Description:
Distance between the termini: 23 Å
Shape: globular
Order of helices and strands: HHHHEHEEHHEH
Number of strands: 4
Strand content: 5-15%
Largest sheet: 4 strands, parallel
Strand order of the largest sheet: 2-3-1-4
Number of helices: 8
Radius of gyration: 17 Å
Helix content: 40-55%
Amino acid sequence: FDKESNNRCAMAMAIAKIGSQKKIQRQKDANLIRTSVAPLLGFKTKMNKYSFRLYQLTGIAFWRSTNFRAMIGDQMGIGKTVQAIGAIKLAIEDKTIKSPLPVLIVCPNSVMSQWKEAINEWIPGLSVSMMVGSPKSKSLKPKKDSVLITTYETMRRNKAYLLSCGFRMTIFDESHYLKNGASGRTKAGIE
Length: 191
């Protein structure tokens, strides 16, 4: 990237630098984060009264600055799922951003229900469905304003069907499942 010639890249690099600090030290940096994620500030979930932490907002701001093309490599338990859901929520609520819906989430089978519960917590009312195996009817497409959660193996087996659904955002949880460039799973994920 040539940060001088690309404003979005320059912003992404500035936010990445802020995110690498243990604590936001300058008011200017805090304002950059707040401006990037303004619709999420002060938000609390209805069920459990959760809110986004500052480092999660920084991660969401980074996603936004990269046009929602980013990889989060934080430690376990930091809230990568919440950051991903926050990016979806931001793109839905901020009318200056093109809608991310429908969204495809690809994850291990063992965490599918956790994703569904988390989305229901943070974005209540959003239609969420899960697909394991083959879709009941290949003529049924996910609703325009919805999220489909599936597994890596299901994605590989149903690549053509999933490509026909017109997903505008894809999230890969545990993306190390895509590390072998020659595997069918990775090839399906790249398409």
